[in-house]
Design brief:
single chain; about 280 residues; alpha/beta; Rossmann fold; Pantoate--beta-alanine Ligase, Chain: A,domain 2; 2 domains; 3-stranded antiparallel β-sheet; about 40% helix; about 20% strand; binds adenosine monophosphate
């Protein structure tokens, strides 16, 4: 069932809770692919009722980013959700979520601001304010849907770590369920932004997963020194790539690692033309 208003979702969830059903929430920005579907399937399996939100959240886009051209495919998303057994697709308008006129001005909105230490690195460094927008919208979705479980992909690992921290710090009564990264057979992590890539770009995009898989293989072969592991990346890069970061950080608190261990995540972001892609791998 497709619902556009907060009141209607609330009404439905209230009925479910009265009947003792557990509720799962899968927050998305739509343009759904098999990565999203894996989260949805997990929720449908685990919970009595599943809500998938489809909302291109304006306040998590920075000036100059792809807010306007971000792919919007609600009809296809609705079909995919219905086929997967989703109970509610919640697709609010920006006005429904943020009211009139205030959408892009933090002067008129109460924000949830994650700790500086978690956002001053990796994607937060180039996307200033991005995680404020993410935490704010996810917090709103939690308040609207009041789910027992919420499903997030490890594809956006920094986001996942920050949201876990938010839930812990603010005592939000929800359990976050992390879901593994879904990749194409060639290794490319699925992403709605892959739609921006030409066939040639897609070949260049394989560098991300190749670099990560190779680092993990080297780690498993006994190399633990982070500068040595980082060095191995360069043979995969060419002049089509602009490397934004390749960093080794702790899986729980994002502290930088000089020596890799089993609790290390390797994070990479690189641009191919105007398209910015991210990926990561756990050295476990
Ligand atoms: P998005 O629509 O990009 O905001 O993503 C919605 C959710 O799907 C987030 O929790 C993402 O981490 C997750 N997700 C996106 N791509 C993948 C993927 N390839 N594998 C697993 N989860 C994913």
């Amino acid at each position: 069932m497709l619902i556009h208003t907060i009141d209607e979702v609330r009404e439905k969830v209230k009925e479910w809770k009265k009947q003792g059903f557990t509720v799962g929430l899968v927050p998305t920005m739509g343009a759904l692919h098999n990565g999203h579907l894996s989260l949805i399937k997990k929720s449908v399996e685990k919970c009595d009722k599943t809500v998938v939100s489809v909302f291109v959240n304006p306040i998590q886009f920075c000036p100059g980013e792809d807010l306007e051209k971000y792919p919007r495919t609600l009809d296809a998303d609705e079909k995919l959700c219905n086929d997967a057994g989703v109970d509610i697709i919640f697709a609010p308008s920006p006005k429904e979520m943020y009211g009139d006129g205030h959408i892009l001005s933090n002067d008129f909105l109460t924000y949830v601001i994650p700790p500086f230490f978690y956002v001053n690195k990796l994607c937060g460094k180039s996307r200033v304010g991005h995680f404020d927008g993410v935490c704010t919208v996810v917090n709103k979705l939690f308040n609207i849907v009041q789910p027992d479980f919420a499903f997030f992909g490890e594809k956006d690992r920094q986001q996942l770590i920050i949201l876990k921290k938010m839930v812990k710090d603010l005592n939000i009564p929800v359990r976050i369920i992390p879901c593994p990264i879904v990749r194409e057979e060639n290794g490319l992590a699925l992403s709605s932004r892959n739609k921006y890539l030409s066939d040639e770009d897609k070949q260049h995009a394989l560098a991300l997963s190749k670099i990560l898989f190779n680092i993990k293989a080297c780690y498993n072969n006994g190399i633990k020194d982070v500068s040595e592991l980082s060095e191995t990346a360069y043979s995969y890069l060419n002049n089509h790539h602009s490397l934004e970061y390749l960093e080794f950080r702790d899986a729980d608190d994002l502290e930088e690692k000089k020596t890799a261990d089993d609790n290390t995540i390797v994070f990479i972001a690189l641009k191919i033309g105007n398209v910015r892609l991210i990926d990561n791998i756990a050295l476990r």
